[in-house]
Amino acid sequence: MNAQHIGKKFIDSVALPLRFVGLLWVIHLAQTLLNMDWGFYGLYPREVFGLRGILTAPLLHGDWAHLLSNSVPLLMMGIMIMFFYRRVAIPTFVSIYLMTGLLVWLFGRSVFHIGASGLVYGLVAFVFWTGIFRRNLKSIVLSLIVVFYYGSMFLGILPGQEGISWESHLLGAVAGIIAAFWFKNSIEEDERPRKYSWEEDPRELDREYFLDRDIFEKTKEERLRETRNRRESSEDRWHRSDFF
Predict the structure, then answer these.
(1) Which of 20-34, 54-68, 134-148, 195-209 shows the lowest per-residue confidence on average (mean pLDDT)?
(2) Is the pLDDT confidence value at 153 over 70?
């Protein structure tokens, strides 16, 4: 993969996460300019009207600080997954988005839950657990990077934090683990193990040899026996030949 191809792949990987984060900022800007509180569009557990929050809650934030705290990791994790796990990036994002909302609706406290933090926790958990499930070098390195930069985030899954939807954090992480397990066999091209010459199909290797491989695999006694049989067969044909 040359530098030009890597650059194009990176630009493509930035586009979708940047648009999604931009959408969050446009929504919050509109809410601020209109001097409105759209928190009632959040997710309210175990109530029918709260089901709409599965789709709308991650798009809403309480204030600019809340939005900023989610935007940076959401953008970074989105780019990482789009670049390194492109084959499953969009299905992963959609499944974590919907699964997190559904789990919070089922098990969360009876309050309005808003914010994209559950999605962030889901993406972080996806990258970390993908390294554990796939066990290849790339995935393990990405897991270590996530632990180094975002390891402290997992304190957010602890209950009893005032004004924080710790359920979204915890259940978002659960959704990320489920997605990592679900897509663990959908590996990228650069994750496929290399096939070395000694692992090739012998039938394919036969076409690469100048001499018949039987020469090397047969014993000396077997080769002598075959030579003797061919000689005797040739002599028999000569005796039975007609002469003019």
Answers:
(1) 195-209
(2) yes
Average pLDDT over residues 48-68: 95
* Nearest alpha-carbon partner for 55 in 39, 69, 74, 41: 41
Task: Identify residue 79 by its one-letter amino acid code.
Answer: I
Residue numbers of the domain that contains 56:
3-191
In a domain, 93, yes or no: yes
What angle (nearest 5°) sits at the alpha carbon of residue 212, between those of residues 207 and 216?
Answer: 120
Structure confidence at residue 156 as a pLDDT band (50, 70, 90): confident
**244 found inside a domain:** no
Do 185 and 73 belong to one domain? yes
| pTM of the model as a whole | 0.76
CATH number of the domain to which 154 belongs: 1.20.1540.10
